[in-house]
Write a structure and sequence with these properties.
The protein is an alpha/beta fold. The chain contains 2 helices and 8 strands. The strands form 3 sheets. Strands 1-2-5-8 form a 4-stranded parallel β-sheet, with helices on one face. Strands 3-6 form a two-stranded parallel sheet. The longest helix has 15 residues. The protein is globular, with a radius of gyration of 15 Å.
């Protein structure tokens, strides 16, 4: 039983190590923080699940990595996002165009 519990904890920790959670930064550009997360080899997905995510710079999503935008949240700013995958609900507005 202890081995099963230890294995489940290990699997859970490994699964979460592949996702980087963004934190809102009161309107500051977060393109460089997101890009730094994508450069980490163990990060496969950057998750947007908070408001105030601003991208004013250029963000390049590497091949095989994903920018996941949770329903109800969006990215604002005047930046450019290139490459990779963007995962979002197909009926959601994911970019603020104002």
């Amino acid at each position: 039983m202890k081995n099963i519990l230890a294995t489940l904890l290990l699997i859970t920790n490994i699964a979460y190590a592949q996702v980087y959670l963004l934190k809102g930064n009161a309107g500051a550009d977060q393109a460089s923080a997101i890009q730094a997360a994508f450069k980490q080899p163990d990060i496969k997905t950057v998750l947007v699940n908070t408001s105030d995510i601003v991208v004013n710079g250029t963000l390049t999503i590497p091949q095989g990595k994903t920018l996941k935008i949770e329903q109800g949240f969006k990215i604002t700013g005047n930046g450019t996002i290139n490459g990779g995958n963007i995962d979002a609900d197909y009926q959601s507005q994911i970019f603020d165009t104002t």
